[in-house]
Design a protein that fits this description.
With 330 residues, this protein is α+β, with helices and mostly antiparallel strands. The protein is built from twelve helices and 17 strands. The strands form two sheets. Strands 1, 2, 3, 4, 5, 6, 7, 8 and 9 form a nine-stranded mixed beta sheet that branches. Strands 10-16-15-14-11-12-13-17 form an eight-stranded mixed beta sheet, with helices on both faces.
Length: 330
């Protein structure tokens, strides 16, 4: 899997690309970087650098103008390791970009914890991303290491309490926020709906009035009427019970069925837990579990918003009409 990343300020004009895959797919490029860094520079025996975990791990690469410059791997047990950046590019934020990419992957696969053994000179880098020391220092192949742990649940518990103003400010830049608590999630949804200027999309296993009410949904009618290209779309995996019970979305649909679209997702694309909300294909609110008050907000044309916009487009094209709603349309 390949995706474009923004070029760093130190490499203006350079194309920075991320790749992710198996050892069979990326192993040769990963091995070359690791050999230069671990075997040639740090004098770690080659027999200790390669192991049987490579065959079963997920591997990550960063490339500048198609040249591989950094790598790392994530084992099936959630252990992050073999992080290596070519010497000329160290200190330019390359390692941090790669780690952020890996942590996004961890969240997508519902990984609760990530473990690693940090070389002592890299502890501060990991700490900036939320890792905490989780044991005593020890020597491995002649280099001092320390175990570290990133617990996503604990990270969410420490999340900042946001206001409408701080959320509006966050939407002006490319970034990521962790939001927890029913009131906080509701506020984030309200702000996103208010900020929508072109389209609104929601894909979820089930519709929940927990996150929406008639007041927060009302601006979607004006959004749908704004111009001919405006779209307000809801994609639900479960529609039978949804269409039988009174809820805020059904009331909205009855008021403005010409502007509100509700469809059922195809069985091939249905998820049991994850949900996401997109505004103008620029801002993304993502639930790991749609019933839990914990979300990630990706703002300002973040690549996750780009990725899920493409996914929603595909899922919508394959979706099905909800026959039970036809009698509700005005």
């Amino acid at each position: 899997m390949t995706s474009p990343l923004a070029a760093s300020s130190q490499n203006k004009g350079a194309k920075l690309t991320a790749k992710q895959g198996t050892w069979q797919q990326l192993g040769e490029a990963c091995r070359q970087i690791r050999h230069k860094v671990f075997v040639e520079e740090q004098e770690i025996p080659a027999k200790d650098e390669l192991d049987d975990k490579d065959a079963t791990s997920e591997h990550f690469l960063l490339l500048i103008n198609e040249r591989a410059v950094a790598t790392a791997r994530l084992t099936q047990e959630g252990h992050l390791g073999r992080l290596a950046v070519l010497k000329p590019l160290r200190g330019k934020g390359i390692a941090k970009k790669l780690l952020l990419r890996i942590l996004e992957h961890c969240r997508r696969i519902n990984l609760r914890q990530v473990h690693l053994n940090a070389q002592i000179n890299a502890v501060n880098l990991y700490a900036q991303l939320g890792f905490k020391v989780n044991g005593d220092e020890y020597d491995e192949v002649g280099i001092v290491h320390v175990p570290m742990l990133l617990d996503f649940d604990s990270q969410l518990l420490d999340a900042t309490q946001h206001t409408e103003q701080t959320l509006e400010t966050a939407l002006k830049t490319t970034g990521q926020l962790r939001i927890q608590g029913q009131e906080q999630v509701y506020l984030a949804i309200k702000v996103l709906i208010q900020q929508a200027s072109r389209n609104f999309s929601l894909e979820t296993p089930n519709y929940l009035d927990t996150w929406f009410d008639e007041a927060s949904l009302a601006p979607l009618i004006q959004l749908g009427r704004r111009h001919e290209h405006s779209r307000v779309r809801f994609l639900l995996a479960e529609t039978r019970e949804f269409s039988r019970k009174t809820n805020s979305l059904l009331k909205l649909y009855q008021r403005a069925s010409s502007y509100i679209e509700i469809k059922q997702s195809h069985s091939l694309y249905q998820t049991k837990q994850q949900a996401y909300l997109l505004v103008d294909n620029r801002h993304l609110l993502w639930w790991q579990d749609y019933q839990q008050p914990r979300v990630e907000l990706y703002s300002g044309d973040h690549r996750e918003a780009f990725r899920l916009s493409a996914q929603f487009k595909l899922h919508w094209e394959k979706s099905l009409a909800v026959k039970a709603l036809q009698s509700l349309a005005l």
